[in-house]
Specification:
The protein has 8 helices and 11 strands. By secondary structure, the chain is an alpha/beta fold. The longest helix is centred in the middle third of the chain and has 25 residues. The radius of gyration is 17 Å and the shape is globular. The two termini are 32 Å apart.
Length: 243
Amino acid sequence: MSKKPPKYQRVVVKLSGEALREPGSGDNISPQIVQNLAVQLRDVCKLGIEVAVVIGGGNIWRGLSASHRGMERTTADYMGMLATVINGLALQAGLEAVGVTTRVMTAIEMHEVAEPFIRRRAMRHLESGHVVIFVAGTGNPFFSTDTAAALRASEIDADVILKATKVDGIYDSDPKKNPKAKRFDRITYSDALARRLQVMDSTAFSLCMDNRIPIIVFDMMNKDNIKNAVLGKKVGTLVTSED
C-alpha cells in the first residue's frame, strides 16, 4: 500500500529565538536543542519537502524590550536583527552536522557570513533540496520576525507557515492561567481577529490572511510534530480562511 503523500510541498517553519534556549539554563543557545531541531528538519526534508526557516533573536536580544527601557527603537531593532543571524548560523551548523545542505540568507548584507536575500535565488535553493534559513527579519526596524515569516512565505509561494511554540495550539484564553481554557483544532482568520487571539502580530497576520497562507501553531517540543504537520495529520491549531 502506497504511503500518503505530504499535504504541503513548500513550508516556512517559524522558530522563536527562545526556542533555542534550554529552560533553566544560562546558555542563550542550547547545542542539544539545536541538534534536536536539525534532526526534525532533516526528517521533513527526507519526505521531499522544501523547507525554509525564519528564526527570531529573543534569546539574545529583544529590540522592543530594550526600547521600553530607554534605548532608541531603531538601533535596538537592528541589534535584534543581528541576534537572528547568530541563531541562524547556529541552526545551519546543526543542520549541516546531520547532513543537510543549508543556506543562510540575510535581509542585511554581510557577505562573509550569509547570502543576501534574493527571491529567485532562494527559490532555486529550495528546489535543489537545500534548507534556507532567513535571518535579519525584514531588514527594517519596527517589524517582527513573525512579519518576516509571513513576508518570506508570501514571496516564495509557501504552502503553509508552521509556527513552533511552547504550547500545543491556540486557546481561547491563557492555559497557564485558566485550566478550563479551550484549545481550537481549527479557527478562521476572522474569528482569530475577532477574539483577539495572539496568533502573530497584526501585520504578519494580515499578510497571511491577504495571501491565504494557512498557519499551523503547534508544540515544538514533540519531536514528530513538524513531520506530522506536513503530512496533514492533526497537530496543534490550523488557522485558515472560511472556505
